[in-house]
Amino acid sequence: MCIRDRYQRRVHGGRVGNTLKMGLVGLPSVGKSLTFNLLTNLSVPTGNAYSSVNPNIAQVAIPDPRFDKLAAMFNPKKRTPATLLITDIAGLVPGASEGRGLGNAFLSHIQGVDGVYNVVRLFEDSTVAHSEGEINPVADMQTVHDELVAKDLQGVLGKIEDLERTVKKVPDKNKQDELEVLIKVRAKLQENISVKDCDWTPNDIDILNKYQFLSAKPMVYLLNMSPEEYKKKTNKHLPKIVEWVKKNGESSLVPYSALYESEVQAAENKEEFCKTAGSPSAISKIIKVGYKELHLVHFFTVGPDEVKAWTIRELTTAKKAVAVIHTDMEKGFVCADVIKYQDLIECGSEGEAKAQGKEKQQGKEYIVEDGDCIEFKVNSAKKKKKQSLE
């Protein structure tokens, strides 16, 4: 299967856009709000099971050495890295889909994000009680899975009834196609299978993305260990967690320790602290994995005024990519002059890259690749616009 086919067959949960959100979820007292603070360098309250009743939102920069090298090369007046929005959502409890705990408020907050960081507690701490009485990561993961599927099933049953009435009154092929897809969704949810873990056709995906099913959103499991276990890279729960994930969609796993990360953040010399402790910080990895799970990449526009990373979905065409800069530019798209990042670095300057023939002119159907340095040429009614490398 080619790369395009592979991505078309999976649902891209969330909005199609440039500013996308990852939501931190999990049961109460798993270290979720502390993790949010570590990711965003904020100080929202922690220690209360429902401390994030109203979601906290922050924007974080995506670590990227390529951006740093381009900024060093051009020494621009302004530097704008790629970013990701992260939302801290209140703790979930079993029965949330039926209204228990914060119930529908919690689930509606998940509706507003594009992907999910599921914080899972692996650490033992007698001073921090687990909401379900014992440390059982697999049971906690199953709870979140079950609640998202249950809420989706509730919703799809009503949508199917509405569409059946509509199609019965006024036959419509598009509505009939939509109904058939939702009937397939119902069947999968009744088997307790997430929407994201099913294969769908491109047409199915167009329909599914209209409904923004909770279980269609990409999931990253953040495995919160004690500092000692993180340093030793071991925990008694890991084998069962890996086994469960293999049976439930093969989502990404990122082991980390919120307490260890707190120590790293407090250190005067973070790099030296990690070297002495013998374990790296996992914060950059968590951010990068979330970015990847949303199927995001970025291209660069570079020059003396600004070096900027622009975020797009994988497999975005050049014509669609220019709309991220300004929507009007898509209408007047002429071409995209592209220099591959590695070519630009190896040549040492834009001028040398052009002299060596490394700049390629691409049309509207060109699939923008991660790291492309692009100069878009655009026509308007009054003048030609450029988002330039110069």
| Beta-strand proportion | 15-25%
> What gap, in angstroms, lies between the N and C termini?
39 Å
Strand order of the largest sheet: 2-4-1-5-6-7
Beta-strand segment tally: 13
Order of helices and strands: HEHEHEEHEHHHEHHEHHHEEHHEHHEEE
Shape: flat
Number of helical stretches of at least 4 residues: 16
Quaternary state, please?
A: single chain
Taking all residues together, what is the mean pLDDT? Answer: 87
Structural class by SSE content? alpha/beta
Overview of this protein structure:
The strands form 3 sheets. The protein has a 6-stranded mixed β-sheet, sandwiched between helices. The chain has a 4-stranded antiparallel β-sheet with strand order 11-10-12-13. A 3-stranded mixed β-sheet has the order 3-9-8, with helices on both faces. It is α/β, with parallel strands linked by helices and 390 residues long. Mean pLDDT is 87; it is low at 1-11, 47-52 and 382-386. The protein has 16 helices and 13 strands. It is flat and about 65 Å long. 42% of the residues lie in helices and 19% in strands. The chain has helices spanning 3-8, 32-40, 65-74, 103-111, 137-169, 173-190, 202-211, 227-232, 238-247, 258-266, 270-277, 283-293, 318-325, 327-331, 341-347, 350-355; strands spanning 21-25, 56-61, 78-80, 83-88, 115-121, 219-224, 252-256, 296-301, 306-313, 333-339, 360-362, 373-379, 384-387. A hairpin with a 4-residue loop joins strand 12 (373-379) and strand 13.
